[in-house]
Write a structure and sequence with these properties.
By secondary structure, the protein is mainly alpha-helical. The chain contains eight helices and two strands, in the order H-E-E-H-H-H-H-H-H-H. It has a two-stranded antiparallel ribbon with strand order 1-2.
């Protein structure tokens, strides 16, 4: 009876932990996983659409070449990865988006879309099948990422010595390179 109880206790404790880990590692809705960091399919698609739109806007009469498409996909993945890593860093550091920052962001969006306010924004989002709460959550995350990235940039310091170390010049007088011909000459000398 004691073994049965300890087996149940063991399973109920560790079984729950295993289930939690398995839930955390269910990445079926993610584009990729780098280490333990899932890269969101949604973010990748968002960036991909932005990049494709910019490319089409800058080259309206040109067909997009397969190489350009690959480059756009690669760039979208890199940006989604960078965004994900920065968002993770922002969350781990406790970076938050304030109500004022969110209001400023929304006002900027209203100006960009030439709309009057929240009601019109909700209508546009509804037409595009984007829930308003999800949109607001995405804007908050964007603010967190921007604040975290700004904090990192403000801490990065480059002094004159760093610049000098980056661009060290060396004056070479003689550069000796062994070629295949030299090896054959050596083998010939050994035979003679």
């Amino acid at each position: 009876a004691g073994t049965m109880f300890s087996g149940i206790a063991f399973y109920s404790f560790f079984g729950k932990e295993l289930a939690k880990r398995q839930q955390k590692t269910d990445y079926s809705s993610e584009l990729a996983v780098v280490g333990d960091t899932p890269i969101s399919q949604r973010k990748y698609n968002e960036v991909l659409n932005q990049l494709a739109s910019r490319y089409k806007a800058s080259n309206p009469t040109m067909m997009i070449s397969p190489e350009a498409i690959e480059l756009i996909h690669y760039q979208a993945f890199r940006e989604a990865l960078n965004y994900t890593v920065l968002l993770q860093g922002a969350k781990s550091q406790g970076v938050k988006a304030t109500g004022t920052e969110l209001d400023q962001m929304l006002n900027s969006i209203y100006v960009q879309l030439d709309i009057k306010g929240e009601k019109e924004l909700k209508e546009i989002l509804k037409k595009n099948n984007v829930p308003y709460k999800e949109f607001i959550a995405n804007q908050k995350e964007y603010i967190q990422v921007q604040k975290f990235a700004q904090a990192i940039r403000s801490q990065a310091m480059v002094n004159d010595q760093d610049v000098k170390n980056q661009f060290v010049t060396v004056k070479a007088r003689h550069i000796l390179i062994r070629s295949g011909a030299d090896k054959n000459e050596e083998v010939t000398r050994q035979r003679v």
